[in-house]
Structures are given as structure tokens and as C-alpha cells.
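Dear H.,

Thanks for agreeing to be a second pair of eyes. The structure we're designing against is below in C-alpha cell form, covering all 368 positions.
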């Protein structure tokens, strides 16, 4: 059996009210899946499914997963260990807004080697302009305190920075800020707002392809620096460099297939993508359907292969081998049939191609 990646939406509840959140249309308090018999059975099924390959990756998102409490996650990792076959490597990552992290959370993440994704949009004035508590109170100080707890505990942590009107013109400043935090990994993604339950509707993007293109070019310049020795890992540049090296991009966005794994909603229903949580894409339900049935279903197979053939615009593009057409969800409603940010990626490749080729040469030369 192939290695399996599972994203679990632990809860719909969140303690923040971020202006651009595409989950914000969903009501709070819809409960949690963490302490349900369905999840217990599902974890056992997952471990049986990956017994041959000996590795599995669990991702935890929300809402805000930490609202479910420390003990709930202790029970989850205990179930994983109890159900795993001998020698199985279990990976856990969690995406959090960081406001609830204290020493106890950091100790748990360190003990079980969680990779923590921390939502942080930049310096205080930038971050607090979009990411506030439900009361409207700022959150930057809480997130920075959470980050310090994680770093002190030695937790592998990366930042997720949403790029919107509040920071799209400040790429260089953002890079220097993140490089100064002690973090070694940064991921950027454009701000968008759309109902996850209506994937047929065009996404509402908060910045234009031209703005995002300028942002990526400026960020690349800061990342590459004067000597071509980046201080930190940055997505999407890492993914593009992998493609220049002839390796898989590592992000479904830039892969030739839409196979990011299984997404389990907080009600237990399973989907092939976080952006497609709607009945036409529903694969089944945990605790009822087997893993094999979920990944072999016609809906899953069709979804995974939807990038083939590519849009007409992509077929003639010299950069297609690196972006692979982007995300099909972002192509809905575009006149050219390609990813909404197609021009942004074109601008980046035209700007950075020579330096990406140089990085490829340096890496290959280092291998001897």
C-alpha cells in the first residue's frame, strides 16, 4: 500500500475572527471529532492500511484545533501508538493560530515531534489588521508568546503567512521579519474567501495576479540575497526548486495530480481536498467506509486525475513543468481556464529563472 496522508478537521470552533478566513461562513460549536468512536476506529483502520509501508502522516486543522484541549490530543497520540503496527513511523502536524500555546502545549508537541504551522502575517501592525479575536482584540502578542514557547521547547515550527491587501506591498519587510524570529520555514499563500461547502463557486481573491507576482518577485530577491544562500526555507520557492531538480514539487498545488490525501471533516465525512467539502465530492465517512474503499472510489480517482489534460493555456507555456497548472479550484471562473494566479507565477519564473538554475547547478555540483 502507498504511504497515506490524512488531514483531520478537529473542530469547526475557532477563537479568532480573521477577516479573510474561508471557513468563517461555518457556525461555531459544531463539535469535535477527537473523542468520538468514529475517530478511534478510523485511526485503527489507518494503521492497518499503512502496515506494509510503515509510515503515515496525520494533519490537524480546524477551526482552531487547540480549543479542544491538551488532554484530547494526548488521547489521540496514545490511540495512534496503541493501534500502530511495530515499526510504523507516525508523523503529526498541526496548524494553529498560536494564541493558546503555553509551556504545556509546547511540551506535548516536543514530546511527540509535532510539526507546528503557526499562522502569522508579519509584524504587529500588519498581523493585527486582519487576525483579531472575536472581540476585536489584537492577537499578535499572544502569537509571539506562543512562538517563544515553541522555540524554547525545540518544536519544529513554520510560519504560514496569508498575503492580502495588508501586506502584499511589503514582501521584503516580511522576509526580514520572519528571518529575525528564529523560524527556519515560511509558507505564503494568497488571501481568498470562498465557502468550502460550495466549491463550484469562483473564489473571492483579495489581491490581483499582478500584485501577487510583484510580491513573489520581491520576496524571491530577499530570499536569494546577494550571494544566493537563502537564510530560510520558503514555499513556494522550495517547491519550484525541487521541480528544477526534477523532483516532485511536494505541494499538491504544483503537482501533476491532485492527491494531497484524505480530508476528514469534523462530522466524519471524508473529502479529497480541503477546498471541496461538498456532497458531490464526498467519498464516504470514517468509521463506516474502509480506507481502501475511500481511495479506490471513482470520485477519488477522478479528482486525483483532474489536472489531465491541462488547460489550453498551459500546454504552450514554457513554465508548465514547474507550476503544473496550479490549483483547479483557483481556475473556476477564469477566462483563460488556468489558475487565477497564473500570471503571478509566470512573472516569478521570468524574474527568477536564471537564479533557480544556478541554485540547481550548485546543488548538483555539491553531490559530486
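And this is the sequence the design step returned. I haven't edited it by hand at all.
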Amino acid at each position: 500500500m502507498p504511504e497515506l496522508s490524512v488531514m483531520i478537521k478537529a473542530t469547526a470552533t475557532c477563537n479568532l475572527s480573521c477577516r479573510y478566513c474561508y471557513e468563517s461562513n461555518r457556525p461555531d460549536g459544531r463539535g469535535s471529532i477527537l473523542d468520538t468512536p468514529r475517530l478511534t476506529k478510523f485511526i485503527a483502520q489507518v494503521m492497518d492500511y499503512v502496515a506494509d509501508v510503515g509510515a503515515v502522516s496525520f494533519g490537524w486543522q480546524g477551526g482552531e484545533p487547540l480549543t479542544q484541549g491538551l488532554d484530547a490530543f494526548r488521547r489521540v497520540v496514545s490511540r495512534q501508538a496503541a493501534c500502530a503496527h511495530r515499526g510504523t513511523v507516525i508523523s503529526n502536524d498541526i496548524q494553529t493560530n498560536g494564541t493558546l500555546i503555553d509551556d504545556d502545549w509546547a511540551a506535548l508537541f516536543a514530546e511527540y515531534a509535532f510539526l507546528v504551522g503557526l499562522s502569522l502575517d508579519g509584524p504587529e501592525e500588519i498581523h493585527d489588521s486582519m487576525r483579531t479575536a472575536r472581540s476585536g482584540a489584537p492577537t499578535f502578542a499572544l502569537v509571539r508568546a506562543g512562538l517563544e514557547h515553541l522555540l524554547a521547547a525545540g518544536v519544529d515550527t513554520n510560519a504560514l503567512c496569508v498575503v492580502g491587501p495588508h501586506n502584499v506591498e511589503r514582501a521584503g519587510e516580511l522576509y526580514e521579519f520572519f528571518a529575525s524570529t528564529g523560524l527556519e520555514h515560511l509558507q505564503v499563500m494568497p488571501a481568498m474567501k470562498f465557502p468550502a461547502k460550495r466549491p463550484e463557486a469562483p473564489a473571492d481573491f483579495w489581491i490581483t495576479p499582478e500584485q501577487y507576482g510583484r510580491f513573489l518577485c520581491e520576496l524571491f530577491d530577499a530570499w536569494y540575497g546577494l550571494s544566493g544562500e537563502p537564510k530560510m526555507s520558503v514555499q513556494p520557492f522550495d517547491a519550484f526548486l525541487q521541480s528544477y531538480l526534477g523532483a516532485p514539487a511536494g505541494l499538491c498545488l504544483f503537482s501533476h495530480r491532485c492527491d494531497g490525501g484524505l480530508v476528514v471533516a469534523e462530522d466524519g465525512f471524508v473529502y479529497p481536498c480541503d477546498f471541496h467539502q461538498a456532497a458531490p465530492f464526498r467519498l464516504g465517512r470514517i468509521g463506516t467506509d474502509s480506507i481502501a474503499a475511500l481511495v479506490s472510489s471513482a470520485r477519488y480517482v477522478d479528482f486525483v486525475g483532474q489536472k489531465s489534460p491541462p488547460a489550453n493555456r498551459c500546454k504552450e507555456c514554457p513554465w508548465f513543468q514547474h507550476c503544473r497548472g496550479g490549483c483547479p479550484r483557483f481556475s473556476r471562473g477564469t477566462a483563460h481556464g488556468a489558475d487565477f494566479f497564473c500570471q503571478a507565477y509566470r512573472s516569478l519564473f521570468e524574474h527568477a529563472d536564471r537564479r533557480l538554475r544556478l541554485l540547481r547547478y550548485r546543488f548538483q555540483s555539491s553531490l559530486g
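Two observations from my side: The first strand starts at residue 4 and ends at 9. The chain has a mean pLDDT of 92.

Warmly,
E.
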